[in-house]
Write a structure and sequence with these properties.
It is built from 12 helices and 2 strands, in the order H-H-E-E-H-H-H-H-H-H-H-H-H-H. It is an all-alpha fold.
């Protein structure tokens, strides 16, 4: 009887999650339809206009800002997160120093994004000004640096798990042939865990795509397409956060359409990562 009740509660929880997800998708879709009808789906995606006076709105500047910050953040994140993953998953696995580093990485993952935004605003932005990136320090490069630090815990923790799962027999075989530890990592550990590491970075990329508060505080919040890394801009998440409070009519529908596109992009990225992880787990 208790087992049936417990199974029933689990089933209800699963169904509720599906209903909530479907409700979110329905709300985004239904609220986006007026904008897509007004501008056309393709024209909305490819238009760079965002003008309140003429009620003309397009998502291209924000798609560009989102992809630029996320890709640059991922590129900055890779060397640091892979080093941390090798530290915890290979070199010092199971040792006290590894547990300390792992705890710090977990702590970084739990820090609210607005704290990262404050740190970037008052600590990293003055450095950007000193380096002459631009007069105010805001821009794609500043947002990307802070975003990279935010996604390091996601990439490094999962990568360390996959690296630690590489069978010892393979590594001992390499050692028996005279390979050094570095050669073993390059020839055995990383190739064997490659698919899992790739999935970890896809998940980190998906996390970067949807980050809002820290990016909103640091990117400069202009509606132009950024040409250089020192340019200011907006991401899909930051433009919604900045403008939804004062929006109405077709502009509000356009913001919902941007949210819908961001939902689709993030869902596709996460699905790719899940597929890769499932293949690794077999």
């Amino acid at each position: 009887m208790k087992d049936k009740l417990f199974n029933g509660l689990l089933a209800i929880a699963g169904v509720v999650i599906i209903i909530i997800s479907a409700g979110i998708l329905y709300a985004l879709t239904s609220e986006s339809i007026p904008a897509f009808k007004e501008f056309g789906v393709w024209n909305f995606i490819t238009s760079s206009a965002w003008e309140d006076r003429s009620d003309t709105f397009g998502a291209l500047p924000f798609i560009t800002g989102t992809l630029l910050t996320s890709i640059l953040a991922l590129l900055i994140c890779i060397p640091f997160s892979l080093s941390v993953a090798l530290f915890n998953g290979e070199y010092f696995r199971g040792k006290k120093i590894s547990r300390i580093v792992g705890t710090v990485v977990d702590l970084l993952a739990g820090i609210p994004s607005i704290v990262y935004g404050l740190w970037g605003f008052y600590t990293v932005r003055p450095i950007m000004i000193t380096l002459g990136v631009n007069a105010q320090g805001f821009g794609i490069i500043l947002a990307s640096i802070v975003l990279a630090i935010m996604i390091i815990p996601y990439a490094s923790s999962l990568s360390a798990e996959f690296i630690s799962m590489v069978p010892n027999d393979l590594k001992e075989g390499a050692y028996s042939l005279g390979a050094t530890r570095l050669e073993t990592i390059k020839a055995i550990s990383i190739p064997s865990a490659g698919s899992g590491i790739f999935a970890a970075y896809i998940l980190a990329f998906g996390r970067a795509l949807g980050e809002t508060m820290a990016v909103t505080m640091l990117i400069g919040n202009t509606n132009n397409i950024p040409i250089n890394l020192s340019d200011t801009g907006n991401t899909m998440a930051s433009v919604i956060a900045n403008q939804f409070g004062e929006a109405g009519g077709i502009k509000l529908s356009s913001l919902f359409a941007i949210g819908f596109l961001l939902f689709l992009i993030t869902a596709i990225i996460n699905m790719i990562a899940k597929v890769v992880i499932n293949r690794v787990s077999r």
